[in-house]
Every structure is written in structure tokens, then in C-alpha cells.
């Protein structure tokens, strides 16, 4: 009769489960333009350029892939704000078309520019919290 021997598991620091990251905390820190890990360092070095690393905790931000996604999200968010506003104004007040265009076009442009950086920061924070696109220390070649 053959005997089965169990292999002893050897614990190493690399085999330890990764610490959980709070998604909501990372999202709110990203919305404020702060590092998703420590919440103190700046996330952006320019208006839409994510810094290479956090100045406080040295978190590496080079693996992020949030270049195109925030623009689409901002369009959707601004659309969901401006369309009901336009419909409400049109049904209750019915202003002339030139007045409507002078309100909606600048409003859409301003809302888009104001939301672009916070949405991109939230996407980077979300990616960091879920260890997506290279933010996982256990799998650096991802």
C-alpha cells in the first residue's frame, strides 16, 4: 500500500495574502486629487497628467491606464445633468432658442472641465483599490 506524504507549506512574505484596500476611501481620495493610498500626496502633476509617484508615501502611479475612460464618463455624467435641466427649463419657461444655447453650451463646457480631473482621479483610485493594471505588488508584470 502506498503512503501519501503531505508536503509542508512554507510561509514566506510573498505568499501572504495582500492587505485589503478600501474602495470607497480610494475613490474619495481620487476625487479630491489625492493619493489613494495615503490621502496626502498629490495625484496630478498637471491638469490631467497623473504624477509618477506620491510625494508622501512613494506609491508608484506609472501603471495606471485611465487615459480615455474619464472623458467618456464625464460626457455621460454631464449629459445626465444638462438634459433634465434643459427639459425642465423648456417645459416650464420656454425661453427663446438663442437664450437656451447661451445657457446650455457654456454650462456643458464648464461642467465637463470641472468634472474631468475628479473623475480621472476616481478612476485611478478605483484601479489602485482593486489592484488593476499593475497596482498589484504580488504580480508586477501584469
Helix and strand layout, with pairings?
Elements: H1 23-31, H2 69-92, H3 97-129
Keywords: Membrane, Transmembrane, Transmembrane helix
Pfam families: DUF983
Protein name: DUF983 domain-containing protein
Key terms for this structure?
3 helices, mainly alpha, 142 residues
Question: Can you characterise this structure?
Answer:
The structure is a single chain. The protein is an all-alpha fold and 142 residues long. The protein has one domain. It contains three helices and no strands. The chain has helices spanning 23-31, 69-92, 97-129. α1 (23-31) crosses α3 and α2 runs antiparallel to α3 (97-129).
Order of helical and strand elements: HHH
Radius of gyration: 23 Å
Percent range for β-strand residues:
under 5%
Number of DSSP E strands: 0
| Largest sheet properties | none
Keywords: Membrane, Transmembrane, Transmembrane helix
Pfam family, one: DUF983
InterPro entries: DUF983 (IPR009325)
Protein name: DUF983 domain-containing protein
Structure summarized in a few sentences:
By secondary structure, the protein is mainly α. Helices cover 46% and strands 0% of the residues. It comes from Bradyrhizobium sediminis.
